[in-house]
Amino acid sequence: MFRLRRRLAVGLLACVAVLFTARFLIRAPDERYGTVIAIDLGTANSRVAVMKNGKMEILANDQGSLATSSYVAFTKEGRVGDSAKNQAAANPINTVFGVKRLIGRKFDQADVQADIERFPFTVVSKDNNPIIQVETHKGKQQFTPEEILAMLLTGMKEIAEGHIGSKVTHAVITVTANFNDGQRRATKKAGTIAGLKILRMIDEPIAAGMAYNLNMDAMDNERYIVVYDLGNTFDLSLLSIDGGFVEILSTISDPHLGGEEFDQRIVNYFVDLYNSENNVDISKDLHTIGKLKREVERAKNILSSQTSTHIEIGSFFEGKDFSATLTRAQLEELSMNLFQQTITYIDQVLQEAGMKKSRVDDVVLIGGASRIPRVQSLVEEYFDGKKVKDLTRDGALVIGAGEHAGIMSDGHGTVHPVLVNSSPLTLGIETAGGVMATLVPRHSSMPTRKSRIFSTTADNQGAVVIKVFEGERSMTKGNTLLGEFELAGILLASRGVPEIEVSFELIRGNTLRVFAVEKGTGKQESITIRKGRLSEEEVDSRVVDAAKFADEDKSSRERIDCNNLRGFSLSLKSLDGTGDSNCHDEL
């Protein structure tokens, strides 16, 4: 096998780009679109907004609420939204929620399986795709996640049409920053089923950044903000905002940390208590658990403004009533390790961006669970007393997305932003000893082009094989091969003499181009890799593995470096001349 030399790098090397995205300007308004609506499609709740008279307005549903439950119930009448959620305890197997956790995913993925275990409704596999199965008056029926999501989108569309009095055909939708291509395509398909053309999917932290910008006076200097989004999932992002220029510098997501998990901790506490006091087991009774979950969620929300609340459920189980008190202190005790985990994530995001917390100008809170007082105090303590900006009640995400919708429909948005997303992971190639050499660092803005110079490991070596890997491990054995190609016709010379320039180019359309040029002869080869974004699970898995195997990888690299120093090798130099001449590669 042909191997390349590399300059020894310090720290963790990662090897994939996940979000191949690019700078872009909001397009000019197009009268053919009519009124473009903005939809914040949340795991638990959704919102819809339109631009009216130059001002963004969040629209109320038929029950007067600005937030609509992301629930679909299969009854004779068919229900979507709050009415679907309200009957969930009585009809658990036919009430679908949390569909964002399934869309664009594969049935056998570990976190999908974990979600299925907790859903009261049935999810089956068809060609390894999750399919929701319900019982209706027509018998068993199956629906794809896209079809369920389309029902939710139709509900939001109808809310908008009821307010503006005309048909709506175009929308801007918020999505989780780590949504991969499959999830985004599936979301777009759901829009098509609902009769909506999705003009753009806005990453949630970008939408939050835009909402923040709208609440601030004109800013002359660049500002750094942390967006702390604790809803039914947890998303954390560090943004740079400079006028209308918004850039994600670093982001992390944990789909199983949030309000739903807090609720489950409380439910488990009361289930254990009730079972012990009554010598029964209610844990498998879906109707009983459904009633308890509904009241626990209500109680948790009350505890954001009160220190205690009472839970009363009539005919709870086998004709007996349920009565209990829940205090804020109990809530905090049951979920404190989860609260603290969010703080650990803040540390991680700042470290990845190479930023000290003292440089953060503002911390923006969104998501219902971020209203928990202890959560807010922990965040403020981490930032040495800096007061957080609570945008949870302002519908920040739909307002931010609405700015784009307003510009697209009639040009009435208040700002014309430039958006810059970044790659959560990095790209690299395999070098001597199976060590990763990074080309595009994690969270690099797109599009981008990066180059490094490598050399041969043997005398008169006429060819090298360039292997492009993805993963979070510093050794290729723990990573995934994206592609490879051979560069032949290299200048025959002593090892370390030929100079091979390897360049990575990320462009829009999820395309990675890799070029290799031997400078002595001008010989050149390249490969184009068209690859979908990785799933959140895959990204998280690589991050976890990198931490888990960090010591093992470090030992392997030290052994390889030691061997390199004992042998003859040429120190690599970066194109900017920062190479360390004391570092050598394995032969």
Detailed description of the structure:
The chain is an alpha+beta fold and 587 residues long. The protein folds into four domains: 36-203, ATPase, nucleotide binding domain (Nucleotidyltransferase, domain 5, 2-Layer Sandwich); 219-255 and 337-392, 2-Layer Sandwich (Nucleotidyltransferase, domain 5); 259-334, Alpha-Beta Complex (Actin, Chain A, domain 4); 422-542, Substrate Binding Domain Of DNAk, Chain A, domain 1. 30% of the residues lie in helices and 30% in strands. The chain has twelve helices and 29 strands. The protein has a seven-stranded mixed β-sheet. A hairpin with a 5-residue loop joins strand 28 (511-518) and strand 29. The radius of gyration is 26 Å and the shape is globular. The relative contact order is 0.16. The model is unreliable at 1-29, 411-418 and 565-587 (pLDDT under 50).
